[in-house]
Amino acid sequence: MNEGTRGSTGTAVAGDAGTRPMVEVTDLHRSYGTGAAAVHALRGVSFKVPRGELVALKGRSGSGKTTLLNLVGGLDTADRGSVVVDGTELSGLGEKGLLELRRDRVGFIFQSFGLIPILSAAENVGVPMRLRRTDPQVREERVALLLALVGLADQAAQRPGELSGGQQQRVAIARALANEPALLIADEPTGQLDAETGLAVMELLRAVVRSQGVTALVATHDAQLLDFADRVLELGDGHLVEHV
After folding, report:
1. Among 154, 210, 206, 149, which Cα is nearest to 174's?
2. Least crowded by CB within 10 Å, which of 187, 200, 202, 203?
3. What InterPro entries does its record include (predicted)?
């Protein structure tokens, strides 16, 4: 079928869902501030992320990586240009549509883990499904499945403070997968981990992409982790300087 498919929250984009990119960014600009003090975080960035791939985004601090991830994930809006995620152009979404996109179609993994300290690992994983009002039995079954997927079935009852940094990030990955997103966005997911644990987390992300059929866009400054990616985008001073 060659007709565009309309996302539940936005404008349809022409093309078959099986062949169009998961992410398509075109001439993206984003600045903060005005006049001489303005910071130009992104300056005309364009790229595509194919479905089912793990794409690494590299660049030094201040190169625009986080800004780009925030725009792709619907956490920020561009000054100019377009972002299409899973067939939906984000500029056509209101706040309600962006909320639904982030809840249902995009999973986020952050450097700081972002777990709720008073909740157990299982409860943290279940939070997105509670917000979506998933049936409790279905939710509990999926939580168990996801904790097993990330190797933490035996730590379901433990709180974040009782887990190592690597284990906490694994819980965060399981939580990001809770609502079966099409796209995972990870901003420096190994930034607070030692080298060995960071490699293990990246290996897990690659395995998740393969086994769950999701697409991942992962920002990292660690050159060792780039080998896990299917392709690499490099940002420098707000420009895309390398695309391999």
Report:
1. 149
2. 203
3. AAA+_ATPase, ABC_transporter-like_ATP-bd, ABC_transporter-like_CS, ABC_transpr_LolD-like, MacB-like_ATP-bd, P-loop_NTPase
Q: How many C-beta neighbours within 10 Å does residue 36 have?
A: 5
Instruction: Provide the residue range defining the domain that includes 111.
Output: 53-75+94-243
Is 40 within the bounds of a domain? no
- Residue 2 pLDDT: 35
From the list 221, 218, 217, the residue with the least C-alpha distance to 236 is 221
For 70-90, what is each residue's pLDDT tens digit? Answer: 999 999 999 999 999 999 999
Angle between helices 136-149 and 121-131 (to 10 degrees): 130
Phi then psi dihedrals of residue 73, to 5 deg: -85, 0
CA separation for the pair 48, 55 (Å, rounded): 10
- What does 113-179 look like in DSSP terms, one character per residue? ----TTS-HHHHHHHHHHHTT--HHHHHHHHHHHHHHTT-GGGTT--GGGS-HHHHHHHHHHHHTTT
Q: Which helix (H) or strand (E) holds 211?
A: helix 195-212
- C-alpha closest to that of 71 among 105, 48, 98: 98
Predicted confidence band at 242 (pLDDT cuts at 50, 70, 90)? low
Give the CATH number of the domain where residue 200 resides.
Answer: 3.40.50.300
Reported residue count of the chain is 244
Residue 142 within any structural domain of the chain: yes
Tell me the C-alpha distance between 43 and 193, whole Å: 31
- Domain total of the chain: 1
